Please model this.
Amino acid sequence: MNNAFHWPDWVPLAGHQLRVSGVHFDALRVPGVRGELVAARLIEEADGDAGPVICEAVGFRWMYFLVAPGTARGHAWPLGVQRFGGAGCRTVTYIGVPALDGNTWPLRWYSEPTPTAPFVDPAGLRAALGGGSA
Model:
């Protein structure tokens, strides 16, 4: 019997690849320590099943919270949160997505997608950011 998790098709098998935001997911970007604190709070409140959060290991150490396609623009986000993808977006933005295993530097999963949390819940993310729900 094979119990292997079949990850989403937008997650590469090895290394990392660029994916267009707004197609497979929308992305919300939060810088550095603030992003890490938000991710940790989100993961704690979700009992470890928060959905996909990607961390950059260099530069500003951006944290990317991946939400379902088309949902990033449906919410008012606090200052400092950048959104990529969704209806009305005039630019094309590529987000680096690491594989679940192996060498993916400078990207890594802070929280992986799971069958029960294929995306981050936008209301939970807003609450973790201190912006309330909905």
User: Anything to note?
Assistant: The beta strands are 16-20, 26-30, 53-56, 63-67, 82-84, 94-98, 107-111. The chain has a mean pLDDT of 90. The first strand starts at residue 16 and ends at 20.
